[in-house]
Design brief:
The protein is about 40% helix and about 20% strand. By secondary structure, the protein is α/β, with parallel strands linked by helices. It has 2 domains: about 280 residues, Aldehyde Dehydrogenase, Chain A, domain 1, CATH 3.40.605; about 190 residues, Aldehyde Dehydrogenase, Chain A, domain 2, CATH 3.40.309. The strands form 7 sheets. A 7-stranded mixed beta sheet has the order 14-17-18-13-12-20-21, with helices on both faces. It has a 5-stranded parallel beta sheet with strand order 9-8-7-10-11, with helices on both faces. The structure holds nicotinamide-adenine-dinucleotide. The site of nicotinamide-adenine-dinucleotide has 30 residues, from helix 8 and helix 9.
Length: about 500
């Protein structure tokens, strides 16, 4: 990454974003849009089209028509694969441009955004493109007087609603498998991070995804998101975001056409450090990286540190020292380690969660207010009761709580003492203990002697109230396909 090039890109005016509805583009000139404010410095970037229910219906209609006409679904698998591979290549060619635009919108530090956003999205799209012509149907092991064929078909029209953190990566997690399976889609990105998503979709259309197959509506969740989730013509809905909204989507599906709803929700992931970890310095670095990257706005953030009593005090000292050294600031500076929180509103809500909290070992304050941006110190809180709301509920900000445990039994009990179950981490040299912990922790992912960084080959999904579907890996394809049986008498 070249700092001069980043500075050139950040100075460019943002072109007026437009929704993609079939072959048409709808901008915000017809009616007032939503103001897009950069969390880097509070500057006004542009206006985002604010979709109405009619816009969403038109996008769903365009998707339905393209699906029924077989414009994508009936294309030979190898031809679909070629288009998606071209799309992935186009994203890579424009990677820095996409990353900088996304950072201006949501404040993620560029060093992370560059890898986790365009490059990861391109890798995901390529992974699913390559799968398209390698998956076979099945013949059932029936009596020889019949032939039982098991076909796999696209579900039809897929709606996808994504959040503001890692918007390109998460869009690719949904649309990679949905498009590879032959569906037509309507995407609703977050009103806080739509700019780079719109650009990435335009690159897909330039690469040859047919018109109508890939539609994007922007705007509020309450109007545009709700209309998509209530649509009678959407067959499956793939969502990443908060549990609060996830619950509403299930209601909307129940009140409309019983569409499938796949939810990837929040986490309060335990990071468990035993005294027998091989290197406590490495563990401390992973703990700090595991909570503070992207200012803690990571679904799998290890936000609950559980430390064996005998090393608790020393380990907290290490974690606080590393936290205080982290460089917080302009996310478009390649040396920055923690960028801005996604919005002024979100920063204030994180600070409110900390208000009056005892035991803040380091951090806890807003900083760099004179920049106009939304920055906060990495924060470590010790001594809270495990029942405290700050320990149990997701904050989605740079806040780590620390709780000591006596032994493995207590570590498991504390790790599981939450309604959420997205990710977790365990540091130990004892192989048997590592496997016992993998079995005992109720979460979709257990990292051992590392934290984060899993690639597209492994599923990511929540247990308990962290969700019900899994993104990534070949398993994700089943969310966007139906099985059909043919029973043929010979
Ligand atoms: P959010 O739930 O507020 O919004 C997510 C999306 O839902 C946005 O596009 C929003 O416009 C839309 N939405 C809001 N209200 C809606 C409604 N009534 N009907 C339909 N759509 C609606 O979440 P957020 O603040 O954008 O993102 C942060 C949350 O996402 C955190 O809880 C985080 O843990 C979670 N997340 C989970 C994963 C995962 O893989 N499990 C990944 C990233 C983020």
């Amino acid at each position: 990454m070249n700092q001069d090039r980043i500075d050139e890109l950040r100075a460019l005016p943002v072109t007026s974003p437009a929704m993609i509805i079939g072959s048409t583009r709808r901008g915000s000139h017809e009616r007032p849009g939503l103001d897009v404010v950069s969390p880097i410095d509070g500057s006004h970037l542009t206006q985002l089209p604010n979709a109405t229910v009619e816009d969403v219906d038109a996008a769903v209609q365009a998707a339905r028509e393209s699906y029924d006409a077989g414009r994508w679904a009936k294309l030979a698998p190898m031809a679909r694969k070629a288009v998606m591979l071209r799309w992935a290549a186009r994203i890579e060619e424009h990677a820095l441009e996409l990353a900088v635009l996304g950072v201006r919108d949501n404040g993620t530090e560029i060093a992370m955004a560059f890898k986790a956003e365009p490059l990861s999205a391109a890798g995901t799209i390529r992974y699913y493109a390559e799968a398209i012509d390698k998956l076979y149907g099945e013949i059932a092991p029936t009596d020889l007087s019949v032939l039982g064929l098991i076909h796999t078909e696209p579900v039809g029209v897929v709606g996808a609603i994504v959040p503001w953190n890692f918007p390109l990566m998460i869009t690719a997690w949904k649309l990679g498998p949905a498009l590879a399976s032959g569906n037509s889609v309507v995407l609703k990105p977050s009103e806080i991070a739509s700019l780079s998503v719109l650009r990435m979709v335009e690159l897909g259309l330039e690469a040859g995804i047919p018109e109508g197959v890939f539609n994007v509506v922007t705007g509020t969740g309450e109007v545009a998101g709700q209309a998509l989730a209530r649509s009678m013509e959407v067959d499956a809905l793939a969502f990443t975001g908060s549990g609060f909204v996830g619950r509403k989507l299930m209601e909307y599906a129940a009140q409309s056409n019983l569409k499938r709803v796949y939810l990837e929700l929040g986490g309060k992931s335990p990071h468990v450090v035993f005294a027998d970890a091989a290197d406590l310095d490495d563990a401390a670095k992973a703990v700090v990286g595991g909570i503070f990257r992207n200012a803690g706005q990571v679904c799998v953030a290890g936000s609950r540190l559980l430390v064996e009593e005998s090393i608790h005090d020393d380990f907290v000292v290490k974690v606080c020292a590393l936290s205080e050294k982290m460089r917080v600031g302009d996310p478009l500076d390649t040396g920055t380690q923690i960028g801005a929180l996604s919005s002024e509103h979100h920063l204030k809500s994180v600070l409110a969660r900390l208000h009056g909290t005892p035991g803040i070992a380091t951090g806890g304050n807003r900083i760099l207010e004179d920049t106009g941006g939304s920055y906060m110190q990495p924060t470590v809180v010790t001594g809270l009761d495990p029942s405290d709301a700050l320990v149990r509920n997701e904050v989605f900000g740079p806040v780590l709580t620390v709780t000591p445990f006596k032994d493995e039994v207590e570590a498991v009990a504390l790790a599981n003492d939450t309604d959420l179950g997205l990710a977790s981490g365990v540091w130990t040299q004892d192989l048997s203990r590592a496997h016992r912990m993998i079995n005992a922790i109720r979460a979709g992912m257990v990292h051992v002697n590392t934290y984060g960084g899993a690639d597209v080959t492994v599923p990511l999904g929540g247990h308990k109230q962290s969700g019900n579907g899994q993104d990534k890996s070949l398993h994700a394809l089943s969310k966007f396909t139906n099985k059909k049986t043919a029973w043929i008498k010979l």
